[in-house]
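In response to reviewer comment 3 from the previous cycle, which asked for concrete evidence that the modeling workflow produces usable outputs, we include below a single protein chain processed end to end. The sequence was submitted unchanged, and the resulting structure tokens are shown without manual editing.
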Amino acid sequence: MRSLIAPISSLLGGVAFLLLGHGLLNTLLTLRGIEEGYSTGLIGLLMSGYFAGFLVGTWLAPSLIRRIGHIRTFAFYAALASVVVLLHVLIVDPWVWLVLRVMYGVALVTLYMVIESWLNAQVSGEKRGQVFALYMAVNLGSLAAAQQLLSLDSPMNFTLFALAAILICAALMPITLTRQAQPAQPDMPATDLLQLARIAPLPLMAAGISGLTLGGFWGLAPVYASQSGFDASGVGLLMSITILGGAVLQWPIGLFSDKHDRRLVLLWVVAIAAVIGGLITPLTSGPLLLGMMFLWGGLAFSIYSIAVAQMVDQLHPDEILSGSSGLLLANGFGAAFGPVIAGGLMSFFGPKALPVFFAVTLAFLALYSYFRSRRVFDLVTEPHGHFTPMLRTSHTVLELMPDTPEGEIAEGDTLDEGQQPLDEEEAVELRTGTHP
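The workflow returned the following structure tokens.
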């Protein structure tokens, strides 16, 4: 393990500081918005600004990284993110905040992309899976730990905003001190959502609904917790418990999905998460609510990972990277709309509308999964994809996925012994679900 971590320790240290500051800021802004008297609909719009900037930054970042390099790009956007954090508390105006949230989203996805492309260049093919798992553990652990920083001071004071900016600036130190050579920035994989919808409609829908649901969680869960009777430290506890559920329960769910029909596993995970969302609705602050949020987080955070694994089962190996990029895009669009929809519902119906939103969106996905699972056929390939716990970061992290090929299949590759080739018509039938 030491030999695995040592070459990438500076990158992992950078992302840990970055996510501590980012996780603190996201919840802090929601709590400050509540104190300022912003409606839940307006808070939802502000949180959506971040996801909109995230999508824009996905297209802007590669050209800048190619032009000025990884370290200078990271320094530029870390400085921009820190400035944006401090401007939130210096100019307390919702429409200024909306612009700042878009800018912050652009900055964060670029920072993700720098770190992840660097990780890709530092690890060999046989270690990608271990590094991917370690990287996601650092992500989830930092986001969960960041919520506990909320208890240090009131959201109305300058302290927590300054701390978030300090943590993001601190991410610069291990990154700029590294002696590792800067890698070349790979081209963004081409994405054809229409083609992906024809080949793997269930994973695409699951990725989009996962983004919609978790976008609502990240943006409005602090409002829900606050209006349900939690103080600032209690809000942080609820967020941490939910994130930890996502970190802990993904592993057993993933192992189960690798050994059983993944479509049915997805159906049951989504259905149970929808039921739990309904059961949360009448609850108020207390241990039972925290326990239910732990379970819900474990199930809801697994949906995107199951969708990626299911997509791997349905695509040719040389299509996996572009397909994963398509799922990431669908998830991002869902996340951009989730806070707006959830915030609007909470404005009309109160805090209980958030768990109802979770229940309804996931129930829709469960129904779609039920009817679609009888029409979707896996492309029979060996080996099948494996479940990998993951968060939506940037498209660059997809290169680290254990099931993503490092290069396209070359002409002349041979089939395994006993494997029968498919003609073009049979392959199309299998991939589109029309094969009898």
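Residues 377-383, 407-436 have pLDDT under 50 and may be disordered. We consider this sufficient to address the reviewer's concern, and the full set will be provided in the supplementary archive.
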